[in-house]
Amino acid sequence: MKRNGLRIGGLVALAAMLTAPALAETGTSLPQDISETAGRLMAAAASDTVGLKFVEDLTTEIGPRLAGSPAEARARVWAVNELKQLGFQNVRVEDFSIPYWSRTHETAEVVGSNAQPLVITALGGSKATPEGGLEADIVRFDSLSDLQAAPVGSLTGKIAYIDELMYKTQDGTGYGLAVRKRSGCANAAAEKGAVACLIRSVGTQSHRIPHTGIMSRDGALGALPAAALSAPDADQLTRLLERGDVRVKLDIGVQSAEAAPSGNVIGEIEGSDLKDEIVLIGCHLDSWDLGTGAIDDGAGCGIVVGAAKLIDALPGKPRRTIRVVLFGSEEVGLLGGQAYARQHGDELDKHVLAAESDFGAGRIWQFQTRFGEGAKPYGDTIKAMLTKIGVAEGNNEAGGGPDVGPLRRGGVPVVTPSQDGRDYFDYHHTPDDTFDKIDPEEFRQNIAVYAAFSYIAAETGWDFRKAADAESAQGAD
Amino acid sequence: MKRNGLRIGGLVALAAMLTAPALAETGTSLPQDISETAGRLMAAAASDTVGLKFVEDLTTEIGPRLAGSPAEARARVWAVNELKQLGFQNVRVEDFSIPYWSRTHETAEVVGSNAQPLVITALGGSKATPEGGLEADIVRFDSLSDLQAAPVGSLTGKIAYIDELMYKTQDGTGYGLAVRKRSGCANAAAEKGAVACLIRSVGTQSHRIPHTGIMSRDGALGALPAAALSAPDADQLTRLLERGDVRVKLDIGVQSAEAAPSGNVIGEIEGSDLKDEIVLIGCHLDSWDLGTGAIDDGAGCGIVVGAAKLIDALPGKPRRTIRVVLFGSEEVGLLGGQAYARQHGDELDKHVLAAESDFGAGRIWQFQTRFGEGAKPYGDTIKAMLTKIGVAEGNNEAGGGPDVGPLRRGGVPVVTPSQDGRDYFDYHHTPDDTFDKIDPEEFRQNIAVYAAFSYIAAETGWDFRKAADAESAQGAD
Ligand SMILES: [Zn+2]
Ligand SMILES: [Zn+2]
Ligand SMILES: [Zn+2]
Ligand SMILES: [Zn+2]
């Protein structure tokens, strides 16, 4: 899957193009020197090695990094060392505690005259089955809604099976819909009297590779044993049900605890005259346990670390501080983001901009902002610059990424550099999320975008919160 | 992966084209009525449902069919019923006994500071590790030859790891080379003092899906515990070795027995005046245990059953008998083919032609023969007919398929309809060998080819053994 498409000629042309003057509108256009520097950053991103090595090393030397596990703890130690060696400042871990869940074993098999194994994986928060497993008949539903509409008690002693499909979209909108069945299956099935629930994997590939992910639960554990079938196994179960009753034996073992250590790893490129103002770019350090967390979200960490290092390599310091946050325990409920917002609640006003990269390493095709009405011209300026490397201008409704949600809700301006996610759910949350799935050239385009907007945000001093009726003075520029 | 590309207009055009007169050369050209009927068979194949349903039902209702296992035994009972219901004659099982091997568990993990699981699968014939597993350092080799060249005793207490790649080819030639490491790793590693061997999976995909297959062994068991890593896990192990020593814990459990029941399932479309002469078309009924044996070799069984049924549906019986053989225990050493040759040793001269379909369900792109010198014009006639549906004319060096090897060596003429195998090793011997990987349209083109040549061979009475110096009388036509 790896490609190396760097062309030196193209690089030089890119640098020339990018340093062309930006919007002429007074006050919201980029000063010539900032525009030129941003252009050079984007050109330099095309030969990034720091970011790519960061994700390669993380996924190789640590591998899977389940939230709250010893592996996530090792990843924090590793990341602190790595950020220090890269020259980041103020490198630290901000600890917090989470409910802990992990699988210990998981098997499923059709029993009876069509006896055969099925490939499953437990959902995050699944209860264990009774010792030795449970055996029950399958009742199939086309969708979560259909299961929810079943009469209470109608599934007593049965296994509910939701066979809902998911389709590929560039922006990942198919995921929100499909993930509802993952989140809601156990609760809905329990309400109807079922003993377990199975779902068709939330994913878009047809390999024998199931997809895990968190489900609704109280603390560490959900209402029932719950697991996802790989797509071919879901097909198989559906074909078997067309032929008659199907009985399945499910055996899931889990470990759980109400409290386990996690933490956010932070490193900074300190600013100069506005160093207490923070441009936060983040990712999450934890991953699911099945793969090595390369596209979710080692890639995001490589992107923000790589981008920050490009800015650090500039001759002068940017005015504001670039804060890189590798959030912990995102996968189990965005817990790192919540902890960060809690621990930094008294300095949210110092956060001038935030974004988290957490959608793989695909090419960024659009750039969204969520700025104050009066700051929209700043957004237009940044977007216009990014169109030069093929990024479309998005709207002003950015989400910012899962772990910066609490910041956004706290009034922090955010941006979303939208990655092409058509292949993301082929790998996401599966054993197949491994380093070879990252395309280095597309990965580096992400670094270009992160480096450019982070640098502009840090160096211009623009106030992205500015309301529509604010006076025309722009930040501290 | 399923497509339904049948176009009725195309079908009619195909039928018209196929019934055009064949080669004019006297005595080796097809009589007009046989040519027309072969054309109609090929057209009818495009709407086959019997063959496709056969493989769907087999892979769904039985699933994996490991040689010598209860599942293979169930598959024989299932196939006997199915062939009888389809109207085959003389349906029977010819029993034989094989050494039995199956896996009971298999895990691998890197231990130490980079602790993480690795996805492996034991090779067929692997020894078990000691109770609780074994732990040893890895020594990597680029190829089997490099391992074989290592000094005796140089791997004492180590795990040998062969990291040899395999490339995609249309005709599967990459497999022969790559499979040598699978076959030879344990013996070579044992000779050097190693305690186990690992190989990069023999396959051409980059998913976290390992590839199993038989290895060299005496009876049921090989020299050492031996397993294949999925491609991403092989990449990972190699990256870890670039960073320093790697220690792996390997835990493989197996069951084995020197004798277990297997068998060949046979059904016939009885001929008319030459009914004791046999056109044998086969496949293998057993599969590896990881997938459901859809492309290897449920598809082959669907193809030959579907083709025979099309011939059976003709108004009159063909002159010779079409014998369909679903061989048992192919995967563990071509044991069904050997048993058949043994059990039918005194009637090999009655076998006028043989072929086994065992390379998936990809489009047939070439048709090879292995006929006597004097019978080559018959081959040319059949090949010329098949060029009309896009099948190139192959040489006269056909292998005929794994289970008909003993027949070929016993002088039976064989043909090889060569399937496009570029994707075959993406799925072959992996959990991913499931029904959804079969393209119905390409599958049906296979049925067209098998129906056409089998019918021509049965109806013409041509002698495919005919030597160069034989008199010019042609068979019994
Ligand atoms: Zn994520
Ligand atoms: Zn995730
Ligand atoms: Zn085969
Ligand atoms: Zn095979």
From TrEMBL, chains A, B:
It holds the Pfam family Peptidase_M28. It comes from the Bacteria. InterPro entries: CPQ, Peptidase_M28. GO terms for biological process: proteolysis. Residues 264-452 form the Peptidase M28 domain. GO terms for molecular function: carboxypeptidase activity; metal ion binding; metallodipeptidase activity. Gene3D superfamilies: 3.50.30.30, Zn peptidases (3.40.630.10). Coiled coil: none annotated. It is found in: Endoplasmic reticulum; Golgi apparatus; Lysosome; Secreted. Keywords: Carboxypeptidase, Endoplasmic reticulum, Glycoprotein, Golgi apparatus, Hydrolase, Lysosome, Metal-binding, Metalloprotease, Protease, Secreted, Signal, Zinc, Zymogen. GO terms for cellular component: extracellular region; lysosome. Its main location: endoplasmic reticulum. The keyword Nucleotide-binding does not apply. Signal peptide: none annotated. PANTHER family: CARBOXYPEPTIDASE Q, PROTEASE FAMILY M28 PLASMA GLUTAMATE CARBOXYPEPTIDASE-RELATED. Homodimer. The monomeric form is inactive while the homodimer is active. This is Carboxypeptidase Q. It comes from Hyphomonas pacifica.
